[in-house]
Design goal:
Length: 355
């Protein structure tokens, strides 16, 4: 719900940022600078002080409230650093969110010393045994933070460096098969959000986060052919250009409610994030009796189908927006191994007279 604050002025600066000033009640000529906007937790205190004619103090950052040189001080200073990088466009907001989720567990005892002993970190990793991938991600995040702190001489040593991984990586998401796609479409008919989502994933090979933004704005005509052209949101991705195939065009025009992106969430609004879109797609999979599958598996299945059809790694890279061949190798390895195994068995059969 939008709230109008009497006397609040929002002014755009040459830099593109905004500042907020407040006219005190009964004094239309005076303007008092406040140090945050309505979205900030300190806004009410800042606004009410200025509205009463008082100049509020600058808002302190979390690390300024922490015990100096404590882990609470270090972690929050690191968050501030990442926040500035997000503003500058050199770090994604998604990265900052992930770091916050992982490193906040260090703040259970914010007054402890900055350099957490190695054995203590291993103990924290062990305590996350039920989620080994998350445990490894936590140690990696701590190690990256400590590298940052060592460079700035906040700490002398990165005690997280070299801690062994506890997660045994598997093959990842289960690839979709043609029969799975048919079953999904049997449940989710043309015109439904689920049908549009599957069609976009299937005919573009995009990632789930791109599904939240891809839309009519990305449609172009290349060499007289209708196409889609976009740069995936994942950092380091190459631009992708693909034909706008008839099944995809028909699917995206079928819904009664259309928006900027092809795929809309609850209330006809765009999804707020790739995570929210992924959770909804998982629900659609369960509704179709395909609870073991996911959105990422569509992309993985497409890569394996392309490999099976004889597409080279570089052709797959062009379609899926990979910038390095080693990324496409992850998806093509299983198909290549199967072909090699078939070839080997054929040679064995011939040499031993079994066929």
């Amino acid at each position: 719900m939008k709230i109008d604050y009497p006397g609040l002025l929002r002014e755009k600066l040459p830099s593109g940022n905004f500042r907020y000033r407040v006219r005190p009640k009964g004094d239309t000529k005076r303007r008092i600078l406040i140090f945050c906007g309505p979205e900030h937790e300190e806004f009410q205190a800042q606004y009410l002080a200025a509205r009463s004619g008082q100049q509020p103090e600058p808002v302190k950052k979390a690390h300024e409230y922490a015990v100096p040189r404590s882990i609470g001080w270090l972690v929050n200073l690191y968050f501030d650093y990442l926040g500035e990088r997000v503003k500058a466009g050199t770090t994604s907001a998604k990265t900052l969110k992930k770091k916050r989720n992982l490193l906040t567990r260090l703040l259970a005892d914010p007054d402890r010393v900055m350099e957490i002993p190695r054995e203590k970190l291993i103990g924290m990793q062990d305590a996350m045994g039920a989620t080994p991938a998350q445990a490894d991600a936590f140690i990696e995040a701590v190690s990256v933070m400590y590298d940052w702190a060592v460079e700035r001489k906040f700490v002398k040593e990165n005690t997280a460096k070299g801690i062994k991984s506890v997660y045994a990586k598997g093959d990842g998401a289960t690839p979709w098969k043609a029969a799975d796609v048919r079953k999904f479409f049997e449940t989710h008919k043309a015109g439904s959000k689920a049908h549009v989502a599957m069609s976009v994933l299937l005919w573009t090979g995009c990632r789930i986060e791109d599904l939240t933004v891809l839309g009519r704005k990305d449609e172009v005509v290349l060499d007289g052919i209708e196409a889609l052209r976009w740069t995936p949101l994942k950092k380091g991705s190459s631009e992708v250009s693909l034909p706008l195939l008839p099944p995809l065009k028909e699917a995206t025009r079928a819904p009664k409610v259309l928006g900027a992106p092809y795929v809309l969430g609850r209330g006809g609004q765009p999804f707020s994030s790739g995570d929210s879109a992924s959770a909804m797609f998982k629900r659609w999979c369960k509704d179709a009796g395909l609870g073991h599958l996911s959105a990422h598996g569509v992309r993985k299945g497409l890569a394996e189908i392309l490999a099976g059809l004889g597409c080279s790694q570089y052709e797959i890279m062009a379609i899926l927006g990979h910038s390095e061949a080693k990324t496409s190798e992850v998806y093509t390895r299983r198909v290549e191994r199967w072909k090699l195994a078939l070839g080997a068995m054929e040679r064995v059969n011939v040499s031993h007279g079994w066929s």
